[in-house]
Amino acid sequence: MPYSVQWQKNSMVGQMKTFYYVHTGHRIGLDRFRRAAAMMKEIQDIEEVTLLTSDYRIAHIAREFGIKNCVGIDVVRNIPNIAKSGDRLLFDSAEANPIMLEDMRNYFSTFIRISDAVDDKKEENEYLISPYLKGEGIFNGVIVDEKYFEMAQTPKTVQLSYFFGDDDYEKDLEKHFEFIEELDPALQLGFYYFLDYEDMLREKFSKTFDFEEYDEMIEQSNILLTASPQAVLDGLAAGVKVIYLQRKDYVKDFIPLFESLNIPVIYEYNKEDLLKTLKTIENHPYKRIEQISNKLREFIRSSLNL
């Protein structure tokens, strides 16, 4: 069945609802989910929103992130099984092709898309949230939970932390132990790690943070080496000296943003570059992230006609 037909078949008239879809999973991680959790804090007080995730496991514990309503839907094509024609949707995913996106713009009364691509553009019948683009119907800004800004003055008790990401299906962290050998970082464990993998990593590293201790890791770290783009932004807001590791299986959409914020970027597990960066990190001139929660709230309110 063509996708557009699927949307039309499930449409019905009723009370307008607001949904927010994020792409999550064991091969893509939780960066979009962590960003959604920050955005939901700014939306839930002005509108009842249901978060839709492509993974049932994270949906099950979404309340622990302050999200009141969350439903796992497996794949993006299942959105019209829950959302009806005329509803409103915030959409944070790179899964949809241009035809699918156009179907969504026609199906929903309001369509707000979150984009990380520097070469993207806003289309008709949509609103856009982007760290790169500006213009009418576009919100320009970096989305970070306000709680991380509040951590900026907290004493940093962990010299170096390492967060490879919430996903490591191929166990690439293990394959590149030599990259961080002798640095003795505290390790932040990810959400989608295999149980036996977690056990091995706990034995390998002298200190580990469990998945639930992510905020504590951000707050306590002096230096954070991470392949998670959202962790880079959370850490920068919290006054952490962040270093971004560009994974081969991750897109490079964030590189222009990180370069504009003067964030060091390490490619190909280049240990020499990492060691050079660490030698000068204490005096590295990072740029600050603007706190935009009030502006974001007003943009959402205006876009949804609330």
- Beta-sheet strand percentage? 15-25%
Q: Under CATH, the topology of the largest domain is which?
A: Rossmann fold
Low-pLDDT ranges: none
Shape field:
globular
The count of helical stretches stands at 12
Mean pLDDT over the residues: 94
H/E order of the elements? Answer: HEHEHEEHEEEHEHEHEHEHEHEHH
What number of structural domains do the residues give? 2
Number of separate strands: 13
Biggest sheet overview: 7 strands, parallel
Summing up helix and strand content along with how strands pair, one would put the structural category as: alpha/beta
What is the name of the CATH class of the largest domain?
Alpha Beta
The largest beta-sheet arranges its strands as 3-2-1-4-5-6-7
As a percent range, the share of helical residues equals: 25-40%
State the end-to-end distance.
Answer: 35 Å
So, CATH architecture of the largest domain? 3-Layer(aba) Sandwich
Radius of gyration from the alpha-carbon trace, in angstroms: 20 Å
